[in-house]
Amino acid sequence: MVSTSQNRTERTARLCAEAALFMRDHVLSRVSHDLRSPLNAIHSWAYVLERKIDNGDATAQRALGGIRTGVEQQVQLLETLVDTTRAETRKLRIERAPFAVAALIGEAVDDARTALGDARGVTFVVQDTTGAASLDGDRERIAQALWLMLVFAAETSAHGASVTLAASASATGAQLEVKWHATRQTLIDDALAHVLEPFARAQASEQQEAGRCAWVLALCQRVAEAHGGRFEAPALVGEGEDMALVLNVPLTGA
Questions:
Q1: Beta carbons within 8 Å of 220's beta carbon, 6+ residues apart
Q2: Whole-number Å distance between alpha carbons of 46 and 227
Q3: CA distances from 74 to 27, 29, 41, 209, 215 (A)
Q4: Kindly report the CA angle at 102 between 100 and 106, in degrees rounded to 5?
Q5: How far apart are CA 187 and CA 23, in angstroms?
Q6: Are 164 and 148 members of one domain?
Q7: Tens digit of pLDDT for each residue in 113-169?
Q8: Helices H, strands E: what count in the chain?
Q9: Which CATH number goes with the domain that contains 169?
Q10: Biggest distance spanned by C-alpha atoms of the chain
Q11: What is the pTM of this model?
């Protein structure tokens, strides 16, 4: 018989793998988007130059041909490598079914405690006012997002710190808010226990662009969007500051 401890370890590994998969997808999406704009500009200006340069200048024409060929090759690489690799998660499929919010919260907290909370001495405090509220959504995906929010908070908390999960429900949706006192240095302190990848933690410790969250939280963003909700995260993990991650999900599907 498989032990409960082994089951928890396997679940933690799977949850980490899911977070990494969506982070990879997010990074590839950024690469595809950020490279296409300058490539399109280079391609357009090459045609402008072609009309300005004497057709009799063979060297200049070869140079322009080389530029266009190089751009076309780069675009093809994006389409065949980057976009194809993203196909698995580009459109997040969700399986909707009604489920009790309160039960999911308890399970996500237990998973986060097992994954990192106990090792860090971090306490999870639950303030749940959802009562008998039921969500019509993908239970497993929402659980993954909540787990990642809790683990991220633990990753950026000092030993013995407390992380609060405030859950509430209204007539239209449910809100899951993770609040804690952040210590950015803990993300990259190798002497501490960690569950998220070093690359993800290092990137999360940096200032994010306006309107964008840390790459490792991409799964939370995608889950919220797939349910017609929203995810909020700070642009920078502060040092000694109060922080919050917020997941809002409509009670019923659109």
A1: 145, 148, 149, 213, 231, 233, 245, 247
A2: 43
A3: 17, 15, 13, 26, 24
A4: 125
A5: 17
A6: yes
A7: 999 999 999 999 999 999 888 889 999 999 999 999 999 999 999 999 999 999 999
A8: 8, 7
A9: 3.30.565.10
A10: 80
A11: 0.79
